[in-house]
Specification:
With 710 residues, this protein is α+β, with helices and mostly antiparallel strands. It has 22 helices and 17 strands. The structure holds adenosine-5'-diphosphate and magnesium ion.
Length: 710
């Protein structure tokens, strides 16, 4: 409990606003509850009569929490969530009163006007119909904020013709595919008890926190979420004093509030700490079933932003809010869990003997190697271009870190056909008698790997901090389903299962060895080595997008019913469009800021300087060479700024007129972005010269180091 805070029990607060299993058991008639459970667990269709009962109880429960409205909460292809609020009230009756009602039909199906959401040509505006459909596997919740209390129903979003217009639909499809193929594989390996396999996901979220008053003075942050100008402060992250440092009081109070809000929504926010860059932090929840984890990550992002406002703070979720210090990402921890509680990625203490684990492991190696381009694409967003491939964590080249122990097992398998031993963890002696000695893990960590095995899960570290983790999990689930399916095809044909499994492990390990890399992913040598190995190094979003609808990708996604070709084509189109649009906004923001704020400030400075030179000259015969030199230098830079500004105006105007989506995106990357950098260069140099009192916005130092004094 914090000073001055009223006592509350975490256990009581946790899930308080969620229509979860406990609430359903308490509220729903037994038969209805059982039917709903069957739908959740086995995907049986829900009849309208049952839905009516559930809707009624859900409404009663929500009203007790103060809810006046409900919304179908969905994730269109904008990367964030969307909602349309409807109140529970019915048309006034004869006596002038209203009733609060909510029908099964309203629960199951919604019909938002779909025409304003990106569809990439899947839907002409005259076919504006889109449907939202209740995803009963992700619990409904009541959100309390300035809008009052609202019952939020997680839904999928499809077009009139049934194509997915969102993240959830393909995610649920990919989970089904993975479940089918995992069960098939497990059965072949002798498991007769597991009935369901689901991907478990825990997303670690990085973010920056700055002071709201200062944020409001930065138009670049307001319009684009990142700083478009800004000279480096005297101190950056070189002292490494922020990472895991003591959390400052103001931030601590904020985190406390964030946690409470998330707990109410059933999001198990668990760890929080400072990150590498100044003002950067991280929040990690306990893992959950993939589709719930994806929804929860959206709630985490939303909550981080909302609660910041209450503390006079502002949360920046952009991947690269500040040049020169680390950006933010999301670590997508992923594993496979059976309904009877087995983690299929648990190697045990002697992985060399764990045939099932080894087969699953090499299948994942195969999947990542074959579809490295798709995984890279799944993490592509505009902000992430400033991280991936830009000498920062993680590199744009996909590789898998296995750690010493597993790499050794794989090497044994490749060289001699079988593995006979596993390297064991050693005792770590602290050398202090009052401190316990403890067992070291058999494997150290590697922070530079984009896809690292971390004990009993894989950690995919490429996803951007403001991006949904949906796509990454869709790709992971599907590519692993494919590898499992192909392994099953082989094993089912074989006379001897054991021999077949053994051969497959060796075959896959050998064929896909090139994807394993345990070294420093940031080094230049790795870039060369990866090229020698033939691993793709895709450094920009524009070049990542085409992976979505290659023949390989279409075949993969259609085989498992995750995406149709039309859906993939539409996503490609949307991605190009989004890319050009966002950079266009950044360019326009730069034009605005440079023209209206920076150039006038510099003119003022030069004018004052010139006047002071004249004043000094008039007063005495002193040396004014310093002032004169400054004036010359500033005037030169001012001219450079004006030139770059004019050029930026020209190139953005041209960019907007390019009709073809890909061509336009390429132009924005190769021409507009380059011109933006030019403009920034002269402005940042000016910032170091011009009187701070005249500079029209807070500096990097003001933003990053003055959030909280203690
Ligand atoms: P690490 O020390 O490897 O970072 P943590 O225990 O701190 O691991 O967990 C990091 C994230 O990984 C958390 O969100 C956690 O819930 C998640 N996680 C842990 N185990 C699993 C698992 N088996 N599957 C998916 N996610 C997991
Ligand atoms: Mg991590």
């Amino acid at each position: 409990m914090a000073i001055g805070e009223e006592y509350y029990s975490v256990v009581d607060v946790f899930g308080e606003n969620v229509f979860n299993d406990t609430v359903m058991q308490q509220r729903l008639p037994k038969k209805v509850y059982q039917k709903l459970k069957m739908t959740i667990e086995q995907g049986n269709e829900l009849d309208l009569e049952t839905a009516d009962v559930i809707a009624h109880e859900m409404k009663e429960w929500a009203i007790e929490k103060g809810a006046t409205h409900f919304t179908h909460w969905f994730q269109p292809l904008t990367g964030i969530t969307a909602e349309k609020h409807d109140s529970f009230i019915t048309a006034p009756m004869d006596n002038g009163k209203v009733l609060m009602s909510f029908s099964g039909k309203e629960l199951i199906k919604g019909e938002p006007d779909a025409s304003s959401f990106p569809s990439g040509g899947l839907r002409a505006t005259f076919e504006a119909r889109g449907y939202t459909a209740w995803d009963c596997t992700s619990p409904a919740f009541v959100r309390q904020d300035e809008a009052g209390a609202t019952l939020c129903i997680p839904t999928a979003f499809c077009s009139y013709t049934g194509e997915a217009l969102d993240m959830k639909t393909p995610l649920l499809r990919s989970m089904e595919a993975l479940n089918t193929q995992s069960l098939r594989l497990l059965k072949l390996l002798g498991n007769t008890t597991s009935k369901k396999v689901t991907p478990s996901v825990g997303a670690e979220q990085e973010y920056f926190i700055i002071d709201r008053e200062k944020y409001l003075l930065r138009k670049d942050l307001i319009f684009t979420g990142r700083t478009l100008f800004g000279a480096m402060p005297p101190k950056g992250q070189e002292m490494d004093d922020h990472y895991f440092g003591t959390i400052r009081q103001r931030i601590a109070a904020y985190m406390r509030d964030v946690n409470k809000e998330l707990w109410k929504l059933g999001v198990s926010s668990k760890t929080e700490h400072n990150e590498v860059a100044p003002a950067q932090h991280e929040l990690a929840p306990i893992y959950a079933v993939a589709n719930v984890a994806v929804d929860h990550n959206q709630l985490v992002m939303e909550t981080l932003k909302k609660v910041a406002g209450r503390h006079g703070l502002h949360c920046l979720l952009h991947e690269k809010p500040f040049a020169g210090v680390n950006g933010s990402g999301k670590h997508n921890n992923w594993s496979l869990t059976t309904d009877d509680g087995i983690n299929l990625l648990e190697p045990g203490s002697t992985p060399h003997q764990n045939i099932q684990f080894l087969l699953i492991l090499v299948c994942i190696l195969k999947a990542v190697d074959r579809h490295a381009d798709l995984l890279r694409e799944s993490a592509a967003d505009i902000g992430n271009d400033h991280r991936l491939g830009a000498n920062e964590a993680p590199p744009a080249i996909l590789s898998v870190f296995l750690g010493e122990q597993l790499e050794d097992v794989i090497e044994q398998l490749i060289s001699s056909g079988s593995a006979t031993h596993s390297i064991e963890g050693k005792k770590l002696e602290t050398g202090v008698s009052t401190l316990p000695d403890f067992m070291k893990d058999a494997t150290d960590r590697n922070r530079t790997s984009p896809f690292a095995f971390t004990g009993n899960k894989f950690e995919f570290r490429m996803v951007g901090s403001q991006d949904s983790i949906g796509e990454a999990n869709i790709v992971l689930n599907t590519i692993v389903a494919e590898a499992f399916a192909e392994a099953c095809d082989e094993i089912e044909k074989a006379d001897d299962v054991n021999v077949a499994v053994h051969d497959l492990i060796k075959k896959y390990a050998t064929e896909h060895q090139r994807i394993i890399f345990n070294g420093n992913g940031y080094s230049d040598e790795w870039v060369k080595e990866a090229e020698r190995r033939g691993l793709p190094n895709i450094t920009s979003m524009v070049d990542a997008i085409p992976a979505l609808n290659t023949e390989k990708s279409i075949k993969l996604f259609e085989k498992f019913g995750v995406f149709t070709k039309a859906e993939l084509d539409s996503r490609v189109e949307i991605a190009y469009e989004l890319y050009a649009k966002e950079i266009n906004i950044e360019a326009k923001a730069m034009i605005d800021i440079a023209g209206k704020q920076i150039i006038p400030a510099v003119i003022k400075y030069t004018t004052e300087l010139a006047e002071s030179i004249n004043a000094v000259k008039a007063a005495c015969d002193a040396d004014v060479s310093v002032q004169t030199e400054l004036l010359l230098e500033t005037s030169d830079l001012l001219a450079d700024t004006q030139n770059s500004l004019t050029k930026l105006k020209d190139v953005t105007a041209k960019g907007r007129s390019i009709a073809d989506g890909r061509e336009r995106a390429v132009y924005y990357r190769d021409v507009v972005m380059v011109t933006m950098k030019e403009l920034r260069k002269s402005v940042d140099t000016l910032e170091m010269i011009v009187d701070k009192d005249l500079w029209p916005m807070p500096s990097y130092g003001d933003l990053m180091f003055e959030v909280s004094p203690l």
